[in-house]
TrEMBL record:
It catalyses: 2 Fe(III)-[cytochrome b5] + NADH = 2 Fe(II)-[cytochrome b5] + NAD(+) + H(+). Its EC number is 1.6.2.2. PROSITE patterns: FAD_FR. NADH-cytochrome b5 reductases are involved in desaturation and elongation of fatty acids, cholesterol biosynthesis, drug metabolism, and, in erythrocyte, methemoglobin reduction. Keywords: FAD, Flavoprotein, NAD, Oxidoreductase. Coiled coil: none annotated. FAD binds at residues 68, 70, 85, 87, 94-95. Its cofactor is FAD. Belongs to the flavoprotein pyridine nucleotide cytochrome reductase family. Residues 17-119 form the FAD-binding FR-type domain. It is an enzyme of class 1 (oxidoreductase). This is NADH-cytochrome b5 reductase-like. InterPro entries: CBR-like (IPR001834), Cbr1-like_FAD-bd_dom (IPR008333), FAD-bd_FR_type (IPR017927), FNR_nucleotide-bd (IPR039261), OxRdtase_FAD/NAD-bd (IPR001433), Riboflavin_synthase-like_b-brl (IPR017938).
Length: 257
């Protein structure tokens, strides 16, 4: 995505048409190629996103302006900061720029865009099928529901990663899975056995790839009729959509980010 330069906004409010500067307050490496970046917001302000919305980053790479979308993982009501989870690809243009970031750097974002329209108790259960950084839009939704005592939506989060080490934000996911209405499970494509995993993960983890059969099992074990959320690579999204259609789900029963 390479576009002509856009004007920079001088205020600190996020805007879809102009870029706003945000300062990086911390950088944390989560896996060999994925980093969590925290950005400062003035005072106790929040970014003002609604659920599932993403923002667009501007980078200059080899003299070219590059723009890419990223979905904050912090709760939508987080005050004074927001966080993004970014996987850096060796051959990726924006990835090269992002890898150079250090605490204190200023980078430019615009937005918000997209989103998943949601109101509390709208669905009996949400079945989240997420692969890698596709967990990003799921996390604010998960926290929005668990923070609201009046929202009794059940949630099943299925996180697909290569290995146990590649599961992002384990402490947050473990905390969330302690809520009465949340269950998490993992599908690890490059683990051959569950034996070396911590005991607490063995029961809810599968090895290999997520299959139509596994999705069917997940749907059948949902406590209420699920609405399915899908987020991952284009190939993952297509594969999950194909599986859901084969199982007999109608298009109004799922949402692809
Ligand atoms: C709405 C939306 C939200 C997004 N949110 C996030 C997010 O929260 N976190 C995040 O990390 N990314 C997210 N992405 C992906 C992100 O926008 C970029 O596509 C990604 O960072 C790669 O950009 P790049 O310029 O580094 O790579 P590019 O220069 O675009 O790609 C170069 C090469 O990198 C590799 N590559 C790039 N993307 C992929 C991929 N998905 N799978 C496998 N190989 C790939 C390939 O080898 C490719 O040929 C989101 C995308 C969209 C559309």
């Amino acid at each position: 995505m390479v576009r002509a330069s856009r004007p920079l906004s001088s205020n600190s409010e996020l805007n879809p048409d102009t870029f706003t500067a945000f300062k990086i307050s911390s950088v944390e490496q989560l896996t060999e190629d994925t980093y969590q970046y925290k950005f400062e917001l003035p005072g106790n302000s929040s970014l003002g996103l609604s659920l599932g919305q993403h923002i667009v980053l501007r980078g200059m790479v080899n003299g070219l302006e590059v723009q890419r979308a990223y979905t904050p993982v912090s709760p939508v009501n987080a005050e004074g900061y927001f966080e993004v989870l970014i996987k850096c690809y060796k051959a990726g243009l924006m990835s090269q720029y992002i890898k150079s970031w250090i605490e204190g750097d200023t980078v430019f974002w615009r937005g918000p865009f997209g989103g998943f329209p949601y109101s509390p108790n709208q669905y009996g259960e949400l079945l989240m099928l997420a692969s890698g950084t596709g967990t990003a839009p799921m996390l604010p939704i998960l926290q929005y529901i668990t923070e609201n005592e009046d929202d009794e939506t059940f949630i099943t989060l299925v996180g697909c990663f290569r290995t146990f080490e590649n599961i992002y934000l384990k402490p947050l996911l473990q905390d969330q899975s302690r809520y009465w209405n949340v269950r998490t499970c993992y599908v690890l494509s490059q683990e051959s056995s569950l034996e070396k995993l911590p005991w607490s993960y063995q029961e809810n983890t599968h090895t290999g790839h997520i299959t139509e059969n596994l999705i069917k099992k997940m749907i059948n074990s949902c406590r209420r009729k699920p609405f399915v959320l899908i987020c991952g690579s284009v190939a993952f999204n297509e594969d999950m959509t194909r599986c859901l259609k084969a199982i007999g789900l109608k298009e109004d029963s799922y949402f692809v980010f």
